Amino acid sequence: MGQSHRMSMVEAVANVVIGYGIAVATQVVVFPIFGIHITLADDLAIGLVFLLVSLIRSYMLRRVFERLL
Asked: I need a labelling partner for 32 at 20 to 30 A (CA). Which of 25, 47, 51, 61 fits?
């Protein structure tokens, strides 16, 4: 039995939300090393853009693999 569409979305959301926290924390540490100085609000906004892209990617890949199996 395959994974339902709902569970695919739950998995994708959990994965991406955790990744968002890691990405923002990484930006806060790494950007200044490269001379990039932005506000925390900008870090959060940039992270949000990548969160949305990652969520769509994760969900679509899960559905493709479910269809293949």
From this structure: 51
Q: What is the pLDDT of residues 6-62, one digit of tens each?
A: 888 888 788 888 988 998 999 999 999 999 999 999 999 998 998 888 888 888 888
Amino acid at 35: G
DSSP 13-49: HHHHHHHHHHHHHHHHHHHHHTT----HHHHHHHHHH
Indicate the domain borders of the chain: 5-68
Q: In angstroms, rounded to a whole number, what is the distance separating the alpha carbons of residues 35 and 8?
A: 39
Distance CA 39, CA 47 (A): 12
pTM over the 0.85 mark: no
- Tell me which residue of 14, 8, 17 sits closest to 63, measured CA to CA: 8
The amino acid that residue 15 corresponds to is: N
